[in-house]
Design brief:
Layout (H helix, E strand, L loop, with lengths): L8 E5 L2 E9 L4 E7 L7 E5 L3 E5 L5 E6 L5 H13 L11 E3 L1 H7 L11 E2 L1
Length: 120
């Protein structure tokens, strides 16, 4: 399935043009990248949200903010790593997957909280 133009963004890495889209679910931000012409192996990367939680006073917590931003620069970084490590965007095949362990190292996020707050 091709990434649609509507709702996706365009990026150029090297000589090739790609489309990418990011969407969130309950646990991660999912990013999918594919050659702009829509054929070939997709890159699917997962990012953690890096939420900052603050105490509500009744032994529960409320999310204060989300620390993760997925930017064109972060997409470029994961694409460059994937291209060096086996992603073949022009070849057919199963998606090339990158877990949060890898994306967190390539695109780190620093979130500072106050006493009693925690980060997930």
């Amino acid at each position: 399935m091709t990434i649609p133009k509507k709702g996706s963004r365009r990026i150029q890495v090297g000589e090739n043009h790609y489309r990418w889209v990011a969407n969130g679910n309950d646990n991660t931000i999912n990013v999918t990248v594919q050659l702009e012409q829509g054929k070939g192996q997709k890159l699917v990367a997962y990012f953690n949200y890096r939420n900052l939680w603050t105490p509500k006073g009744d032994s529960s917590f409320a999310r204060k903010f989300q620390g993760r931003s997925v930017t064109p620069k972060s997409i470029e970084l994961i694409m460059e790593w994937a291209l060096k490590n086996g992603w073949e965007p022009g070849a057919q095949g199963k998606p090339f997957l990158m877990g949060v362990d890898k994306t967190s190292k390539l695109v780190p996020v620093t979130v500072f909280g106050e006493k009693g707050e925690y980060i997930d």
